[in-house]
Design brief:
With about 400 residues, the chain is α+β, with helices and mostly antiparallel strands. The chain is built from eleven helices and 17 strands. It has a six-stranded antiparallel beta sheet with strand order 3-2-1-6-5-4, sandwiched between helices. Strands 7-8-17-16-13-14 form a six-stranded antiparallel beta sheet. It has a five-stranded antiparallel beta sheet with strand order 9-10-11-12-15. The longest helix has 21 residues, at about 120-140.
Amino acid sequence: MKASEPDPGTEKLLRTAPPHELVATAQRLVAARFGADEVTLLMADYGLSVLQPVTHLPHTGPPVPALEGPVGRAFTTQTPVVEITDDPSVTRVHLPLTVRGDRLGVLSVRMPAGGTDPVTVLGLADVATALGHEIVTAGRDTDLFLLARRTRRLTLAAEMQWQLLPGRGCARPEYALGAHLEPAYAIGGDNFDWSSDADHLTLTMTDGMGQGIDASLLTSLAVGALRNARRAGISLADQAALADQAVYAQYGGKSYASTLLLRFDLDTGAVQAVDAGSPQLYRQHGATIEQVELEAQLPLGMFEETQYVEQSFRVEPGDRLIAVSTGVHGARAADGGLFGERALRQTITAATPMPPHEAARAVVAGLVEHFGSAELGADAAVICLDWRGRDGTS
């Protein structure tokens, strides 16, 4: 069998391997099929700042930068990178480990010189993709790969929030999105969520009032209620109303959650929206950046039986939407200066050439620079969506 041909045996062996044996199984497969003499799995940490080489799970080797060097380039560009080493007899291939647009890390393979022709690189990329899917599946049965992503211990609030997230990215022919959260190891109340079917994408950003475990519990209730309502197949406004009732029933108006709900028609680009609180939405098309003006309605749970009204707008192929939580647009530096719309627009402009996942991270990096410290005073969440549309969308 040629390296470029699908190998059902590879997928079967990975699928049947015990979770703790996945990395070792991938190493044996790549060595046998491609002649590699070293295979390393590197997992991205929660802050997307480093990639940690997984040795004997759950232990990791010394981390490497996620934004620098050949390994970081494979991660940020999401393309295979062939590294020419100082040893003329050795070449390294770094392959992004990604599942449906959600970046997990990089598979790094050391090959003999001359063994990195395009056909071989494509074959290695297929193995990396299969391994990524199995790592996601293994997460149902083991904590090993979650532990491998950590540079330090998470707070309990952050643990709850990460378990609530769908991932940090998603891609389909009609769109690509990436999202980022900070402070990664101590988030309390910020959340993003999405779900797609054949013809629609639903996207939400939620910010639970308060900090720490109280905010995390509130957000967990709000997101769970929104998901329950969404899965009942009801309208966006009714989803907000049912979640509002659930939060009010628990907290009696003493605590509430701000939420932005968006539902995209994949055929037409028509968007239904409910702005229930403080997240802000910006649209970028070319050099033009504008805030999408939505009617500010009451946060979830502030008052009993609040009624919500949907608004609509339209996205065109080539549009980029950026949603930011209060911790971004309302953040203040040590001198009291507000991050504000001007700085946010400048950061969005600077991130224009970047893919959505890097653009979302860059917005938070701009906030950190403005704030003057990586220890932000409040959670910061960013979602970046690049809209491609379907053929025939106008």
